[in-house]
Amino acid sequence: MADRKMTLKELSERTGLSEVNLSKLKNSRVKAIRFSTLNAICTELKCQPRDILEFVYDI
């Protein structure tokens, strides 16, 4: 988002996702994400999931 100079509010308006949900995703306060949410974000940001997600082993 920062690379695209887009705020959470703008991304929220463009994707239909709530700012609260986007903020939780941005700050790693979620354990799961719906494919529809990921699709909406990646479509708007014109990126691939690998560009915005990081896999962390749960040990």
UniProtKB/TrEMBL annotation:
Residues 4-52 form the HTH cro/C1-type domain. It holds the Pfam family HTH_26. InterPro entries: Cro/C1-type_HTH, Lambda_DNA-bd_dom_sf. Keywords: DNA-binding. GO terms for molecular function: DNA binding. It comes from the Bacteria. PANTHER family: DNA-BINDING PROTEIN (PTHR37301:SF1), DNA-BINDING PROTEIN-RELATED (PTHR37301). This is DNA-binding protein. It comes from Erysipelothrix rhusiopathiae ATCC 19414.
